[in-house]
Design brief:
four-stranded antiparallel beta sheet, mainly beta, Methylamine Dehydrogenase, Chain H
């Protein structure tokens, strides 16, 4: 049984500093609280369907209390990662398979979202042009979906047509190489692709070759073009997994699956250059390395960073220095289950939902807006093999 583990002295010190630093901004936030805020959100949960799961689950979340309830499900094969279109009318999901229509590739599915019920209706599918697609994003113009293929070791972009339907991929890049771990790094494994806040720079974390590959993204054509600075390396055996841009666009954070740490970068978006700033463990100080990592996300306010640990079964919390991007450890919070594959922070920044894949449950935590610390709300819901959590505020 895992306990909530933290460095008490350091945590108290950080909390005291945060309370002083954020006092003014919190007061300003109180003045804005008179505005009407959304009360509920749809939550879309991607899953693995190898067991009891049927596909993508739609939940309703009470943003005030954290209570979550199951509303509907749409059948889809291994829709492990999902993304919501900027207009909130369409959901896209990877189908993490390697045998789509007789070819060695996976698929990407599009679903329309009913605004009143949150229910999903299948629109169409397209090939991902590589086996086991595991991550995708929609660009900010809402015209393209970018995909990372894990087993295929490649990335691609697909245009979005009328009504949100997908067209065949128009840009494709095959990664190459290997690294030092003979079990996990015999070849490329693109694990994620993300766009910077300016919608101009795409970065792909490749677990198999210990690199973050950098592309220029053309939002008119959807083309991915290798940047003049094509990549940045991390320590051999790190296993880059997911990447998160800071809202300012000045910093980026990559969680490394195999080495259980986060690499912080400064970013020159004009040159497309990522410069390593810091490497920090995802585990409490002095803790023996166990398991692997999964997700990393920056809080909407940019002041906190969160990462998930599978095996240690916790979410790590860091304070982000707004001036230089460096991270300071705050705490590790037990996720209330096992193997937190992913988590989601609701758009208001008040709640974090941790998806525990092995124990088939999603646990709701409240986020302290001054410190970033997590505390259980007492609410959770049973969902088979949850992998990804995405939100859409209800109209």
């Amino acid at each position: 049984m895992f306990l909530r583990i933290s460095c008490r002295f350091l945590k108290s010190f950080v909390c005291a500093v945060l309370a002083l630093v954020t006092l003014a901004s919190c007061a300003a936030g109180d003045d804005e609280s008179s505005e009407v805020e959304p009360q509920r959100a749809w939550v879309f949960v991607g899953t693995y369907t190898r067991g009891k799961s049927e596909g993508i689950y739609v939940l309703e979340l009470d943003l005030a209390t954290g209570k979550v309830s199951k509303k509907s499900v749409v059948v889809s094969k291994n829709p492990s990662f999902v993304a919501v279109h900027p207009d909130g009318k369409v959901l896209y999901a990877v189908n993490e398979v390697g045998d789509y229509r007789g070819t060695i590739t996976g698929a990407i599915s599009a679903f329309s979202i009913d605004q009143k019920s949150g229910s999903l209706t299948a629109l169409n599918q397209q090939s991902s042009r590589g086996a086991a697609p595991c991550h995708l994003v929609v660009d900010k113009t809402g015209r393209f979906v970018l995909v990372a293929n894990y087993s295929g070791g490649s990335v691609c972009s697909l245009p979005i047509g009328d009504g949100g339907r997908l067209k065949p991929a128009i840009s494709f890049v095959q990664h190459s190489g290997f690294s030092v771990n003979p079990q996990r790094q015999k070849g490329p494994h693109a694990h994620s692709i993300n766009l910077d806040p300016g919608n101009r720079l795409a970065v792909a974390a490749d677990l198999g070759i210990d690199k973050v590959l950098i592309y220029r993204f053309d939002s008119d054509s959807g083309e991915l073009v290798t940047n003049a600075v094509p990549s940045v390396n991390v320590a051999p055996g790190s296993g880059p997994r997911h990447f998160a841009f800071h809202p300012s666009g000045k910093f980026g954070y990559m969680i490394n699956e195999l080495s259980l740490d986060v690499t912080a970068f400064t970013i020159d978006s004009d040159a497309g250059r990522l410069s390593k700033l810091q490497v920090i463990s995802t585990l409490p100080p002095g803790t023996e390395r166990i398991g692997s990592t999964a997700e990393v996300q920056v809080h909407p306010n940019g002041r906190f960073l969160y990462g998930s640990n599978r095996g240690h079964d916790s979410v790590v919390v860091y304070l982000v220095n707004q001036g230089n991007g460096r991270l300071t450890y705050v705490e590790n919070e037990w996720t209330g289950g096992e193997t937190p594959r992913n988590f989601g922070i609701d758009p208001t920044g008040n709640l974090l939902l941790a998806a525990n894949q092995a124990t088939n449950n999603i646990v709701v935590f409240r986020i302290d807006q001054r410190t970033g610390e997590l505390s259980p709300t007492g609410y959770q819901i049973d969902i088979p093999s949850p992998v990804c959590v995405k939100f859409l505020l209800r109209p």
